[in-house]
């Protein structure tokens, strides 16, 4: 089945336009549970209730509000929120081309695929080839679902352009905010050397297909056991504290 | 100090480092409350039993899958080891991991008070900062297993959750690069990229949406009328002649009629 695009628009850089279609690139494969009442197994419903009246409120009685001070709200309609989206809402507006390898992966959020849009085969191919050759990615603004996002357009392996939604710099927590403790004694050269050897001994090529989600299977096994009426007991797992004097011994034993 | 989302042990060979996981991204979005239109009372969401119609506390809620109900404790029995430990399986070149796999960034922070814990954490950070490799491991957080890449950044260990390969969709059926590009066009496009090139400086990009939304709220508060801006339809047309568009853009950039953003 051919995938369905979720957005149609145009990449613009200078006077050059590249009509594109946006497709989802990822999907969750986790097991999805339903919430039920343990007592009787009945489904749990999420009901919207006005605490003042203690009555359920239907969706057409609900408005959006932004709290400007304690208990004081400014009401905004859907259209008013959409007004913040920006003017050129059907564009992926390129601002710069930057070296792709300089972007720390922490900036990357969700990824989408870009396919060619109507009448855009030549321009799409040209952008792909030029990005590939230059090693650069296009940093652009994209309005999707009434919200402007920072995105990076990048050539992927499958002759497809990818669109990464990016985090803004002030959204990333700085290491300085973490207040990391310092050890009384720094790791010794010998320890660093041994740990380096351990890293080397575990070096491998990244092969995503070799990692299966084994937890999914484990959960299904528990579901099966429970269905047979077995009692399910979790074994407590102890977290071991690393002993300062043991660090060297642990490294040696690992090798 | 950011909130812990998970605590457990990071295992590297026989070295165990007690760690906690905190998010490396903070939510700066403006959040709206749902209000009862009548009197602007914030609406509450209640978990209600569909049979009895009464509110149900968290402890009395179970997880149902295909007719089988599991408590949170029973779910924890699925893989108790991965629920409490991150086992480093291998070290791969960071550049080999396509950004499409990256999901959410977190920090790992030493969780123990002992000097051994802190020193083991420092040792791992130090060793990781000397290599271009990231440690691959797996752990379970909130009933989902994650493949993770751990690396040193600015003296701390960061953990990025990665998508499993079957969570990345195939590109089959999506129309991509077809045919050949002329050298002339490619040269023109490369020149244009060159002209619009910049160093990667994340601080150069502000969240304009957040700012505009704040402005909309301010205006509405003062009783102003909010108008949606018009869409610029003309700019979205495909160009009839690619080469001409490239040349014209380069010319305009040269004359200063078009400014790089």
Walk me through the structure.
Chain A is of the alpha+beta class and 255 residues long. Helices cover 21% and strands 33% of the residues of chain A. Chain A has 5 helices and 12 strands. Chain A has a 7-stranded mixed beta barrel. In chain A, β4 and β5 (55-56) form a beta hairpin. In chain A, α3 (189-201) packs parallel to α5. Chain B has 6 helices and 12 strands. The mean pLDDT of chain B is 89. Helix content of chain B is 25%, strand content 31%. In chain B, α4 (183-195) runs parallel beside α6. Chain B has helices at residues 72-76, 80-84, 115-129, 183-195, 208-221, 242-255, and strands at residues 6-12, 15-23, 33-36, 41-42, 44-49, 61-65, 68-70, 85-93, 102-110, 133-141, 144-153, 156-162. Among the domains of chain B are: 6-26 and 79-167, Ku70, Chain: A, Domain 2, CATH 2.40.290; 181-194 and 240-261, no CATH class. Chain B has 261 residues and is an alpha+beta fold. In chain B, β3 and β4 (41-42) form a beta hairpin. Chain B starts with 5 loop residues before the first strand and ends in a 6-residue tail after the last helix. In chain B, the strands form 3 sheets. Chain B has a 7-stranded mixed barrel with strand order 1-2-9-12-11-10-8. A two-stranded antiparallel ribbon of chain B has the order 3-4. In chain B, strands 6-7 form a two-stranded antiparallel sheet. Chains A and B meet through β1, β2, β3, β4 and β6 of A and β1, β2, β3, β4 and β5 of B.
């Amino acid at each position: 089945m051919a995938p369905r695009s979720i957005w149609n628009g145009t990449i613009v850089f200078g006077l050059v336009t590249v009509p594109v279609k946006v497709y989802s690139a990822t999907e969750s494969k986790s097991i999805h549970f339903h919430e039920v009442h343990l007592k009787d197994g009945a489904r749990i419903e999420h009901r919207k209730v006005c605490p003042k009246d203690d009555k359920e409120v239907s969706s057409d009685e609900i408005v959006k509000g932004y709290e400007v001070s304690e208990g004081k709200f400014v009401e905004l309609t859907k259209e008013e929120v959409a007004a913040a989206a920006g003017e050129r809402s059907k564009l992926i507006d390129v601002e710069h081309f930057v070296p792709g390898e300089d972007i720390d992966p922490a900036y990357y959020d969700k990824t989408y695929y870009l396919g060619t849009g109507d009448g855009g085969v030549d321009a799409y191919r040209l952008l792909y080839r030029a990005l590939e050759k230059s090693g650069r990615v296009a940093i652009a603004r994209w309005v999707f679902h009434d919200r402007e996002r920072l995105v990076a357009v990048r050539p992927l392996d499958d002759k497809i352009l990818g669109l990464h939604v990016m985090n803004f710099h002030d959204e990333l927590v700085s290491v300085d905010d973490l207040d990391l403790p310092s050890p009384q004694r720094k790791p010794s050269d010998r320890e660093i050397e041994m740990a380096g050897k351990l890293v080397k001994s575990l070096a491998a090529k990244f092969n995503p297909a070799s990692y299966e989600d084994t937890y999914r299977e484990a959960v299904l096994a528990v579901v099966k056991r429970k269905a047979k009426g077995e009692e399910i007991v979790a074994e407590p797992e102890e977290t071991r504290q690393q002993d300062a004097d043991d660090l060297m011994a642990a490294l040696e034993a690992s090798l | 100090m950011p909130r812990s989302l998970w605590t457990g042990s990071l295992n590297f060979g026989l070295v165990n480092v007690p760690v906690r996981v905190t998010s490396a991204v903070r939510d700066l979005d403006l959040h709206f409350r749902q209000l009862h239109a009548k009197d602007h009372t914030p609406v509450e969401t209640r978990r209600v039993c569909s049979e009895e119609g009464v509110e149900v506390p968290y402890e009395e809620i179970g997880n149902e899958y295909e007719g089988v109900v599991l408590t949170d404790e029973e779910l924890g029995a699925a893989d108790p080891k991965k629920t409490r430990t991150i086992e480093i399986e291998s070290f791969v070149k960071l550049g080999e991991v396509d950004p499409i796999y990256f999901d959410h960034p977190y920090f790992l922070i030493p969780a123990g008070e002992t000097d051994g814990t802190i020193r083991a954490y420092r040792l791992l950070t130090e060793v990781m900062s000397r290599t271009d490799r990231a440690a691959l491991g797996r752990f379970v957080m909130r009933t989902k297993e994650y493949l993770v890449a751990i690396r040193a950044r600015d003296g701390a260990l960061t953990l990025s959750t990665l998508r499993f390969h079957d969570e990345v969709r195939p590109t089959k059926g999506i129309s991509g690069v077809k045919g050949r590009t002329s050298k002339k066009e490619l040269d023109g496009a490369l020149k244009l990229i060159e002209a619009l090139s910049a160093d990667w400086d994340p601080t150069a990009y502000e969240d304009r949406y957040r700012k505009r939304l704040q402005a909309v709220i301010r205006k509405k508060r003062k009783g102003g009328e909010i108008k949606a801006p018009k869409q610029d339809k003309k700019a979205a047309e495909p160009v009839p002649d690619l080469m001409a568009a490239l040349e014209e853009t380069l010319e305009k950039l040269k004359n200063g009629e078009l400014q790089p953003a």
